[in-house]
Each structure stands twice: as C-alpha cells, then as structure tokens.
Amino acid sequence: MNILILGAGGREHALAWAVLQNPKCDRLVVAPGNAGIDRIAECADLDILDGDAVVSFADAESIDFVIVGPEAPLAAGVVDRLETAGISTFGPTAAAAQLEASKAFTKEVCDAAGAPTAAWARFTQAAPARDYIRARGAPIVVKADGLAAGKGVIVATDEDQALAAIDDMFGGEFGDAGTEVVIEEFMEGEEASFFVLCDGEVALPIGTAQDHKRVGEGDTGPNTGGMGAYSPAPVLEGDVADRALREIVEPTLAEMARRGTPYRGVLYAGLMIRDGAPRLVEYNVRFGDPEAQVLMMRLGGQALDLMLAAAEGRLKDMRVNWADDHAMTVVMAARGYPGAHDKGSVIGGLDTVAEDSAHMVFHASTTERDGQIVANGGRVLNVTARGASLAEARDRAYAMVDAIDWPEGFCRRDIGWRAL
Ligand code: AMP
Ligand code: GLY
Fold first, then answer.
1. Is residue 114 part of a domain?
2. Helix 103-113 vs helix 250-258: angle between axes, to the nearest 10 degrees?
3. 175 pLDDT more than 80
4. What is the Å distance from ligand 2's center to 345 Cα?
5. Which residue is closest in CA terms to ligand 1's atom 11?
6. Does the chain have fewer CB atoms within 10 Å around its N or its C terminus?
7. What does pTM read for this prediction?
8. Boundary residue ending a domain (92, 127, 162)
9. What's the domain range around 175?
C-alpha cells in the first residue's frame, strides 16, 4: 500500500522508520519531512494544514493510508476532509481533536465520564478569575484554553504569579488560545505518559513513557518541547496503567462516542501518579515528541498494523507483541534552545553511527546544504537506542551522541535519571 505521513519532526521520522519495516508498505511519502526522513522515504512539499491540498495530493499519488503526526492539522480538520474523500486516515476528526485543542472541553468530558482529574473552573473575564485565585490560594495552575504550542500553562507557586498569568492571558499574550482560561488545582505526584490506540470503541495500550521537559540537568531551567524520553515508565508498572485505562481512558472514549464524536487515533494521556493512583493532567490527540521515538523503536513494523486497525475499527482483534525491552532517546538541541539559537551549523559524524533495529538517529529539524546535514531548528536530533535494560539503552544512546560531531549542539546527560 501507498502511505503518506504528515509532519516534519523526529516523531514523523520514527513513524516512517517503523512503517517501512512492515512489508505492507510499498511506497512511503512524508510531507514535508526533513533531511533525515529524506534518507529513508520520499519527501513532498505540501501545506499540511490545507485539507484540500492534502486530499488532492493523496488522490494524485494514489495514497491508501494517511498518518497524521502533529496536532495542528488534526485541529484544522484535515482528517475530516480525507475521510470525506474516502481515504483511510489515522487520527481524530476536528471534533474529537478538541480533547487537545480545548482544555475546558476536556475537563467537561472528564467530569461527565467520571475520570479523575484536578478540580477546575473556566473564565472568560479577568475579575472573576482573580477572585477564584485569591479564594483558592497557591500553588495553582493557570492554563490558556486553546493550543499554545505547549506554552500556555503556568504552574504558579504563589498567588502573584497566578494573577500575573491572568493578566498575560487576558492581555492577549497567547492570542485566541487565551480568550478563555482554565484554572486548576495543583496536583502533586510523578508525571508519566500513557499511549493508547483507539478505534472509536476499543482502547488498546501501546506503551508508557516519561519525558524530560526542562532544558537543564536535574530538571532545571525553562520548559522545552522535551529533552529526552524513555519507555517503559516504571511509575506506571503494576496495575497503575490498567487503572488509567479503566478509570480514565475507557470512560473518556465512551463519553466521546455518546456525544456522537467517537475518538479514533492515538490518545496520549498525561498522568499524575500519587500513591499508585493516576489522575489526568491533559490529553494529547497525537503521539508525543520525543515519546514516539522510543515507542516506535520498541514496536517496530507492527505499529503500521496497529494504526491500520485503529483507523478501520478492528482493534478488538489486535494484540501488541511486547518485547521485554527498554528504549531511550536523547534530544540534541542547538545551543541557546529554548531561547534564541542559530540555524545552519554543520553536523558531522552521522555516517560513523551504525543504525539498526536498536540504534537510530531520528532527525527532528535538519536540512541538507551542499551535501551536508545542517541544523534547522531548536531540537535537532533524537538519538535513540533500545536495550535489554534501560541502562543498556542509555549507554548505547550516549555512545552515539559521543560519535556525533556537532560543537553548536548540546544535550542533557541525565536522561532517564528517575528510572535509573
Ligand atoms: P501542558 O503544557 O499542558 O503539557 O502542561 C505542562 C505541564 O504543566 C504538565 O506537564 C505538568 O507538569 C504541569 N501541570 C499541568 N496541569 C497541572 C496540574 N493541575 N497540577 C500540577 N501540574 C500540572
Ligand atoms: N513531549 C511532549 C509532547 O509531545 O507533548
């Protein structure tokens, strides 16, 4: 079959790498892709937020199956357009993608589903929001309702910080995303990510992971899109993941179906775990980035069969073949990230890294210039390895990092510290 993946990051490189291992894949196109993806698949220049353009491209190229990577095309309704055109697609409709695109929507769904999450209230005006903060006190969490590229959440340790966040949000700092604000109880515990494939009715867990959001070692410094991840996450072992499935994910799916907007695709539940009890922090309607890199390395070619089954409503017949393994990805970023950083520095040594089913350098943001790979963004490479233990995966990943010659880049040296 001919497959099209939409996206340009390390997540999409990992999806492409896994899909290519499945003999069902005859041809793979990634749009727009990047220099790393270009080494293993065809890349096509396409505006992936333009549903008409995606449908015309898929028709012209006889695409049988589309996998949507990032949230923006999902929220823009690209899946709705593809499905109307009769093209099988992995990902939720715009109505179902509200689970990521609107925090207030998600909280309402959770309340209706009885899924445990933080106490909350929603506001469209600053004065009552300020009163609520003063009444509740700190710590407290202030969130812009809409998509804000991961920056619309302020975990306020004191009241002044929370009040300042209200001023920023209603002052337009987050654009339309901040015209409505959700204020939440601060939840204590350990965070982990739980990934579940959904076909509208059935939920099939495909793995757990932990990300590292802060830029600095020891979880210090500003937040980023994620500096590294590993799978599985020990904090979700035992019956914790099972509880998250039964108490949070399955009731959410039932509520979405009841509303006439069944959820299909991957549901990424961000969980807070305390004393073995999971509560929902947030949903994402796509694979995590860089969490997808470790999940794909563990799943390999079966990822395509699972995504096809999710799109076609066949998940109840599917099983995941779990290997008793661990994977880790280390993000190499341009110096200065998440602040100002340069583009265009040359990355050497990539050809000295042997890539196989346990070692891969996924490209997050690279381009090719005069035959050389150059950095083209903040998070640039995802150096990913698998092993029989997390320590083995870590040693392999950092050995690859050390073989890469990129003086303008940096990484955290402590990925996995919580589990190791
Ligand atoms: P998000 O940008 O939605 O991924 O949220 C960013 C981070 O804020 C989450 O990963 C949590 O670490 C933190 N966070 C969000 N909501 C809460 C909450 N209610 N209690 C504690 N931490 C939270
Ligand atoms: N790594 C966090 C995310 O993809 O949202």
1. no
2. 100
3. no
4. 25
5. 281
6. C
7. 0.96
8. 92
9. 119-185
